[in-house]
Amino acid sequence: MTGRRGLGRREVLAGIAGVAGVGAAAAIGCAKAPAVTRSKTSSPQLLDGVMAGDVGEDWALVWGRSDRPAQMVVEWTAGSRSGRVVGPVVGDASGFTGTTRLVDLPPGADVDYRVTFEEVHGRGASAPATGRLRTAPSEARDLEILWGGDTCGQGFGVGEPAEPGVDEVGVIGLKTYASMAEHDADLMIHCGDLVYADSPIPRAMLLPDGTLWRNRTAPHRDKVAETLEEFRAAYRYNFLDDSFARFHRQVATIFAWDDHEVLNNWYPGEVLPAEDRRYTERSVDVLAARARQAFREHTAIAGPSIHRVIRYGPLLDVFVVDMRSFRGPNGPGLEDTKGPATAFLGSAQASWLAASLAGSRALWKLVVADMPLGLTIPDGDAAIEALANGDPGPPRGRELELAGLLAQLRAGGVRNLVFVTADVHYTAAHRYDPARAIFSDFDPFWEFVSGPLHAGTFGPNELDPTFGPELRFIKAPPPGEGNLPPSAGYQFFGQIQIAASGLMTVTLRDREDAALWSIDLPANERV
Questions:
Q1: Following CA atoms 357, 427, 145, 327 in sequence, which dihedral angle do they give, to the nearest 10 degrees?
Q2: I need a surface site. Which of 11, 59, 371, 510 has the fewest CB within 10 A?
Q3: Spatial separation of the C-alpha atoms in residues 206 and 212, rounded to whole Å
Q4: Each residue of 324-353: b (16+ CB within 10 Å) or e?
Q5: Residue 527 — pLDDT band, cuts 50, 70, 90?
Q6: CA 322 to CA 258: how far, in whole Å?
Q7: 487, 169 contact by CB (below 8 A)
């Protein structure tokens, strides 16, 4: 299995001709457009490009942004079938973003779509923007899924050319997105840190070797995000890169979130210390509410919750979890009994995940986690940021929740379980084995880590032995080196290929699309 099926998505998407018919629609956006100062142009303008988000067998979500109050309209074609869906009226309440649900799509099809924004009371309309998505198949066929995380972090934004006569880093744009665009993937999964709202984008940064990294800059990206408009600006910034915008026109993306959509290592109820002078707003709950709104405005997610299931045919169900919204405070993680302090997914979400995995009829169950399960990730000197607490004994703290989940999955006979994640800014493969573990009431499973897509590179982190993780592969910066720029080459994404026969092949790749490591996972075996 090659994992690529021709050049269709590598080519520039043409406009859609001859679209006819009116389909049923469900739309996400503001219902009433408020007054706003118009630009000098006579018609609405479509900004940032377009993209598809969550997708099923006969439906998909398409996203776009206007420069003013306007009606979103999406036309689509798939072979001989076509439709036209009138979406929401977008306005200031949603940052002029809108998401339109396409319905009655054919399964397993390439769907070309065209987005325009029309004047609410008038005849003017924006120039169209085109994109493509692929609906979930109704029968088993080859699939290709890409994943990664961490975009425009640590101040490394959209690179610009060096000025003549100045010794600078020769990096332009977000190279990893250009490499991913060369794959004819069915889906992309972004595991979180879509943006770094707490990481301003400076005009230039001096690197340890004396060279300069130059960035494209944009309004509201010169400080940490506190206001809703500043959080929105973080998402809009990424679209300045042509490779980023082109990739999202070509491949539907399933979005999760992590900490940097708000700020580093945040948790509900946190209050920022007075000495952190970057922020005037001290309540993290206030910041998180604004960040969540911006996140939902700039991603096409089905349903009210970030945690959800995307059913992508008989071979694959994708389970997106939210490791941020329901956790307890970051602490040492050494509690012996469950309580508010040990929450990570939270009891309701953990129960939902266990039941949803047990009820899945798909061959493979892919869990999208915003943090690795077995890596110790500190938050300061005395607290942990993730699940693993670094204690080599039985489950304690947040590990209690994971132990309960894994035991339920074993009792329910859940097989073919794979976790994908990012967060730690390097790439690795971990196999969790009860024969190696302190807690052993679970079946073996794999966890694959890949990122950053475009950010500083760190690592590696230590593995906690409680659940028996074994490091099968790693690529990270050399010892003693950290926060390396994207130009250093330590940028990564992951590729999952599932053959119609059920064989899963996982490959870890670098920003140049070179395969670093790969493994075949047969279905229904103790992997």
A1: 40
A2: 11
A3: 5
A4: bbbbbebbebebeeeeebbbbbbeebbebb
A5: low
A6: 8
A7: yes
pLDDT of residue 395: 98
How many CA atoms are closer than 13 Å to the CA of 492, on its beta-carbon side? 28
| Residue 258, both tokens | 């992590």
- Per-residue b/e over 156-165, b at no fewer than 16 CB within 10 Å? bbbbbebeee
Tokens of 60: 């998909």
Distance of CA 45 to CAs 29, 125, 244, 312, Å?
Answer: 17, 8, 20, 34
Give the DSSP letter of residue 159: B
pLDDT at 393 over 80: yes
CA distance 277 to 283: 13
C-alpha angle with apex 488: 482 to 489, nearest 5 degrees? 110
HSE-CB of 375 using CA atoms within 13 angstroms = 26
- C-alpha torsion angle, residues 31, 37, 42, 45 (rounded to 10): -60
Strands of the sheet with 187-190, listed across from one edge: 252-255, 187-190, 143-148, 492-498, 504-510, 515-521
If we measure between CA atoms, which residue out of 415, 405, 410, 420 comes closest to residue 364?
Answer: 415
| pLDDT tens, residue by residue, 449-489 | 999 999 999 989 999 999 999 999 999 999 888 899 999 99
CA–chain centroid gap for 152, Å, is 13
Residue for token pair 């800059």? 217
Where are any strands of DSSP class E within 422-526?
427-432, 445-449, 469-475, 492-498, 504-510, 515-521
Domains of the chain: 26-134 (2.60.40.10), 143-521 (3.60.21.70)
Distances (CA, A) of 129 to 16, 95, 115, 249, 500: 10, 19, 5, 9, 33
CA–CA distance, 236 with 476 (Å, rounded to integer): 29
38 pLDDT more than 50: no
3-state SS, residue 107: coil
Residues 6+ apart with CB under 8 A from 343: 326, 327, 328, 398, 401
Q: Are 98 and 27 in contact (CB under 8 A)?
A: yes
Check whether 32 has a pLDDT greater than 50.
no
CA-wise closest residue to 433 among 472, 463, 467, 400: 467
More confident residue, 146 or 162: 146
Q: How far apart are CA 42 and CA 126, in angstroms?
A: 9
Tokens in use for 277? 């002078």
The alpha carbons of the chain give a radius of gyration, in whole angstroms, of 22
